[in-house]
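Intended use. Records like the one below are meant for learning the mapping from a protein sequence to its folded structure. Do not use them to infer anything beyond what is encoded.
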Amino acid sequence: MIDPLGINDLPTLLKHILAIVGICGLLTYVTDVYADEDATARHIKITSLAHRVAARASLATVLCLAGVFFLALDRTKTGADSPYFVGRHIGEPGLVLYMGLLYLYTAAAAAVCGYQWGRAARHARRWPLRAGLAMMAAGMVVIILYAVLRTAFLIPTAVALPSTAAVVQQEQITDAVLYAGFLLWLVGAVTPAARALIGRIQCMRTVVRLHPLWRDLVLAVDGIALYQPSLLLDGHRAAAVVNLARDVLSHDATPQIRLGRYVTEIRDVTHELRRRVPADLLSRARELADAEGHRGTDAAAVAEAYWLKSALGAVRHPAGAPVRFETAGGDFASEVAWLVRVADVYRSARPAAVPLIGSTVTEQPVPHTSRM
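Structure written out for the chain above:
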């Protein structure tokens, strides 16, 4: 599309302009990262200054490059003279000015990005983010090295023409440096994103494992769930996969938010059930877990799962004072891990376990409970 215009090296100019536009966007991104921090800090002042001048500096660089390209370069040369843009114009003072402007802009932008990402890496708490930011900063250092090497080679060419072999050799070396810099930046940028993706996948798996327990509990007690479970085909097994997919993929913005909601609603239902079950139900559940050979924390998880399964039989009983109930989990992460263990037992519990524990519960005709 460009070649028919008949302007030699125009694709190179457009490539350089697009590179400048991309770097300008990168400088804007660096500023947005620190939008909520103290504006009086030195690193914020540097970033803000870069943001204010980035667009104008980019535009000025583009105009200067275009001016040098059309007025100072010998554009009668083609790829037959040399396959490289620098090789075609080697020895021309305009080439030193043209490439010097481009490399100066690139080095300055890389320095700002490298400074900010390096500082952010030192203060990052999670190692994937710290490693990613450090690699991105290292990539910018390599890009600065690339700009310095290219400039150091070009300046002497305005005085004495290098050999063709020297031109080819410097192209190969500087291209390798450039690719290494971009590879570091790319891997560094992908590392935090990959860690976030892995976190979302793990969170989604946890939600799926908690779903059977959550579904049974919130269906038993009205007014607890923010969003009622999907009941396509009245919850028939034939629609189980579709109902599961609708529950774990809809409503909430992220899997993390959905997981937090599941944990909260499970505990809210647990509190409601504590007001309706016999006081000795937990001890009976523990006796059954011990009788089955479970020990330690395994026994506690099994007992809690049996307690929940049996307590659902008392959901229509009149509410009273909450009975004693013990569970593990001192913070959100440990509570999630604990509930996953309980949910796994709940899902695979022997049917005979419920009648044995639930035999202490006598049914009374009380309307379906609601949140109080």
